[in-house]
Amino acid sequence: MDTRAIIDLITETSSATQEQLVTILGSSEDEYLFERANEIRKQYFGNEVHLRGIIEFSNYCRCGCLYCGLQVQNNSVERYRMEPDEIIENARQAYEVGYRSLVLQSGEDPYYTADMISYIVKEIKKIGDIAITLSAGEREYSEYAQWIKDGADRYLLKHETADEKIYDRLHPHSSFNTRLQCLQWLKELGYQTGSGFMIGLPGQTLETIAKDILLLKELDIEMAGIGPFIPHPSTELRDAQTGSSLLTLKAVALTRILLKRPHLPTTTALEVSTGTNAFNAGANVIMRKIEPHKYRRLYDIYPKPLKNEKSLLEERHEVETYIESFGRYVSDTRGDAVEHKA
């Protein structure tokens, strides 16, 4: 069976083997792959693009991820924490300029207790009809349960790589099994659950990437962030190669074709590394930093250029103009999970 036939089969059946995915990832049928992914994206989302505002509220982290600039061993980072009321005010300002979906993201920072995060979630919910995604790493089941009860809608926890050996080598503070357990808890509790992975981690193969996509399918995720690995000069992987943008786009497209319904962003890492986006490969979401500018440069997971400081309203108009430039428009909805079609 040729590559186009395999792409068509996966499109029709929403089922794939690891071998089939590897064949497509290694083929040169990129244009056809992106074309089919775009067709499915349009079936599920039309020409809407969902805009998420990210409040990166702390760059403290207990973890030692070998690729991350926020790793606990990095003493060159200027650390910061936003206080709960500062986060809530930031969310209020974002709501006033039209954001209806917010991502509250931080390093794994135990300073923020379960009750503090509950307070933040409940107060933001009083502002208006805002969808809240939490992204605060691995926590206890009881904490996840408390936050969804208090109003959190979604949780983003990337699995990073489905290769257990690579995962455990890059995450000395945790394990692949622990990460999977957290993702399973989130699904069990009813969160709209997001995961995702990096392209280009040292030791990764096409077989690994295929396993990543199949894991997203197994978890039945509602969101997936797929971006290229970008080496940070203050980490052990400083001399590693940046992940392939083309392979990243192919992974996004395959995820759209196989899973159909998840929200798939064009990740910041992809925009930073190549200046490109994944909207023509099946993506339907864009994320933008909205925390105060004094913090943005400090949330330094990987190197990225600093932009001129503008108001939240100016930044929102800028991203709207960008999206309209290729024939799409920003959705005015919260962008909740798409249900499975019968």
Short description:
With 342 residues, the chain is α/β, with parallel strands linked by helices. It is 42% helix and 14% strand.
Describe the structure.
The chain is α/β, with parallel strands linked by helices and 342 residues long. It has a single domain, classed as Alpha-Beta Barrel (TIM Barrel), CATH 3.20.20. The chain is built from 13 helices and 9 strands. Strands 1, 2, 3, 4, 5, 6, 7, 8 and 9 form a 9-stranded parallel β-sheet that branches. Helix 6 (141-149) links the parallel strand 3 and strand 4. It starts with a helix and ends in a 12-residue tail after the last strand.
Characteristics of this structure?
single chain; alpha/beta; TIM Barrel; 9-stranded parallel beta sheet; 13 helices; 9 strands
Low-confidence segments: none
Largest sheet: 9 strands, parallel
Structural class: alpha/beta
Query: Radius of gyration, rounded?
Result: 19 Å
Q: Please, how many domains? A: 1
The overall average pLDDT, rounded, is: 94
